[in-house]
Amino acid sequence: MIVQRILPFAKELITSHIHSDSTVIDATCGNGHDTLFLAQSVPNGHVYGCDIQQTAIDATRLKTKAFDHVTLVHTGHENMISHIHSAHLERLDAAIFNLGYLPKGDKHIVTQPDTTITAIERIFEYLRPEGIIVLVVYPGHPEGQVESEQVYRYLQNFDQQQAHILQYGFINQQNNPPYVIAIEKR
Ligand SMILES: C[S@@+](CC[C@H](N)C(=O)[O-])C[C@H]1O[C@@H](n2cnc3c(N)ncnc32)[C@H](O)[C@@H]1O
């Protein structure tokens, strides 16, 4: 298959921008699937994960308990940078945001445009050149639609001298399917 589905493509973007000793961020831990993937991808590096729900942090801790290079913080991604050790911050190569609500969780707890944009700005500031921020965006529910529009508008106006920004998604699927945005620092 040449055309990749959304989540595999998001993961491949991350894989192609990191090294074994990179520092990486899971900005929305949820059930910890992405945190586990990141922990396996940077065996000599460090993974920082955060979520505003304690249950998500607990689930992610359980899923990644075999790894000692994972730090989980019960906080919003807009605060994540301030929790990263300075030695790790110098090797920050990637961050992933899986926006929206937690599947099988409380659907009222969703990522918000303002804090998502603040988090992108802060993480981008510390990202190494050629590092990447990957967003999986879910415009298929009402709050997700608003967030998708605001984040998209913000990124459309991002200085092209500072980053390459691409969008990847299926254009013939019904009900506003999820899509990927990748922000690669120049
Ligand atoms: C789509 S889920 C993430 C799924 C996760 N990547 C997985 O593999 O299971 C979105 C998560 O973002 C969290 N969230 C919402 N606002 C947040 C914020 N400001 N900072 C960090 N996490 C947030 C929610 O609590 C929810 O767990």
What would you say this structure looks like, in words?
By secondary structure, this protein is of the alpha/beta class. It has a single domain (6-185), classed as Vaccinia Virus protein VP39 (Rossmann fold), CATH 3.40.50. 33% of the residues lie in helices and 21% in strands. The protein contains 6 helices and 7 strands, in the order αβαβαβαβαβαββ. The protein has helices at 6-15, 33-41, 54-63, 86-89, 113-126, 142-156, and strands at 23-26, 46-50, 70-73, 92-98, 132-137, 163-168, 179-185. A 7-stranded mixed sheet has the order 3-2-1-4-5-7-6, sandwiched between helices. The protein is globular. The two termini are 30 Å apart. The model has no long low-confidence stretch (mean pLDDT 97). It binds S-adenosylmethionine.
Strand content: 15-25%
- Biggest sheet: strands, sense, closure? 7 strands, mixed
Straight-line distance between termini: 30 Å
What is the name of the CATH superfamily? Vaccinia Virus protein VP39
Number of helices: 6
How many strand elements? 7
What structural class is derived from the secondary structure elements?
alpha/beta
Which oligomeric state applies? single chain
What would the CATH topology be? Rossmann fold
Number of domains: 1
- Give unreliable regions as ranges: none
Mean pLDDT: 97
The spatial strand order of the largest sheet comes to 3-2-1-4-5-7-6
Give the overall silhouette: globular
Question: In CATH's first tier, which class applies?
Answer: Alpha Beta
Helix content: 25-40%
Any idea what the radius of gyration is? Answer: 15 Å
